[in-house]
Write a structure and sequence with these properties.
Layout lengths: L5 H5 L4 H9 L2 E5 L3 H13 L3 E6 L16 H6 L3 H12 L4 E6 L7 H5 L4 E4 L4 H14 L3 E7 L2 E7 L7 H4 L12 H4 L3 H20 L8 E6 L4 E6 L26 E4 L4 E4 L9 H8 L4 E4 L3 E6 L2 E6 L4 E4 L4 H11 L3
Parallel strand pairs: 1-2, 1-4, 2-3, 4-5
Antiparallel strand pairs: 5-6, 6-7, 7-8, 9-10, 10-14, 11-12, 12-13, 13-14
Helix pairs in contact: 3-10
Length: 339
């Protein structure tokens, strides 16, 4: 067995057999911000053989305080986070396979992203996507690990379909818009990111190594500033749960999916097409060159027109800065992207 993993193999709960299972495992990380970046680095170093990383955004300087995979050069180049993560992970462990998708996870692609993976790790920043993950994982019977962190507080739970409560058993309905603090409104400190990711990735190693009996089976809550640590033991799945009880996967239904989203605290709106699409960024840059300042690389195109900035990705998704009004954003998208 590779000397790289010798100290992990000495840990009797993993050993050689567990390490071999890790090397054969496939993990999907949805979101590569603070939590997702920490997940990716930990699992890459642990020798998980295949990591699929999906993220819709690009690296900014405000990320560097807590998103540990990224560097100042990534922020200067505004590299997509999934691409920057893949490049960094190749330097950490060249023996594993890392697949990067610059994309928004939505009802049209989530099942394809999940179906060939053994485990899904939540690195997202919104409940809409988490409920979508929950629907898809329950439907496809894939284990997933929920995690969230803001300010100095974080929470996590592990979902094993048919064995544990799912996310919707515990949180029956999504919080109302604007009702929950975000990193943009309440800030966040890096230690809570490390804490929540450590629990999530430890649970991941247990599952991948086959040690299900060691799972914490709880909703864990931490506040590292207030020194508050709580463990709420979970029971059986709720037979009346809309998702795992009634098998009603409403978040996977296209008619319940919003194709625009206000990015909280950023004065920006994300727009994406209702069907999977690929766009030729070079051709688009040529069309837009006389309409404003255009900067383009192989991953994205940025157009600045007056007070607005449009960042268009190769999947035809766009982040439009300078407004938090969806109607305005859709209008700009239609005008400049045209699909």
């Amino acid at each position: 067995m590779n000397e790289r993993y010798s100290r992990q193999i000495l840990f009797s709960e993993i050993g050689e057999a567990g390490q071999e299972k890790l090397l054969q495992s496939r993990v999907l990380i949805i979101g590569c911000g603070a939590l997702g970046a920490a997940h990716a680095e930990t699992l890459a170093r642990a020798g998980v053989g295949f990591l699929r990383i999906v993220d819709r955004d690009f690296v900014e300087f405000s990320n560097l305080q807590r998103q540990t995979l990224f560097s100042e050069s990534d922020a200067k180049e505004k590299l997509p986070k999934a691409i920057a993560a893949k490049k960094r992970l190749a330097e950490i462990n060249s023996e594993i396979e890392v697949e990067a998708f610059v994309a928004d996870v939505n009802h049209s692609n989530i099942e394809n992203l999940i179906k060939d993976c053994n485990l899904i790790l939540d690195g997202t920043d919104n409940f809409q996507t988490r409920y979508l993950i929950n629907d898809a994982c329950v439907k496809l019977k894939k284990p997933w690990i929920y995690g969230a962190a803001v300010s100095s507080y974080g929470v996590t739970m592990t979902v094993i379909p048919n064995a544990t409560p799912c996310l919707r058993c515990i949180f029956e309905e999504m919080p109302g818009a604007g009702s929950s603090p975000t990193c943009d409104t309440a800030g966040v400190i890096q230690p809570i990111i490390s804490t929540i990711s450590a629990v999530q990735t430890t649970e991941a190693l247990k599952i991948l190594a086959g040690n299900f009996e060691r799972l914490h089976e709880s909703l864990l809550q931490f506040d590292v500033w207030q020194n508050d640590w709580r463990k709420i033991k979970l029971g059986r799945p709720n037979i009346d749960c809309k998702t795992c009880g009634q098998m009603n996967f409403e978040f996977l239904e296209a008619e319940n999916s919003e194709f625009s989203a206000v990015l909280c605290g950023r004065n920006a709106v994300q727009i994406y097409p209702p069907k999977p699409t690929q766009i030729n960024l070079l051709n688009l840059a040529e069309k837009l060159k006389n309409l404003g300042e255009v900067k383009q690389n192989e991953y994205l195109l940025r157009l600045t027109v007056g007070e607005f900035e449009l960042t268009v990705f190769s999947d035809a998704r766009a982040i439009i800065r300078g407004t938090d009004d969806r109607t305005t954003a859709r209008s700009l998208y239609a005008k400049f992207v045209g699909i």
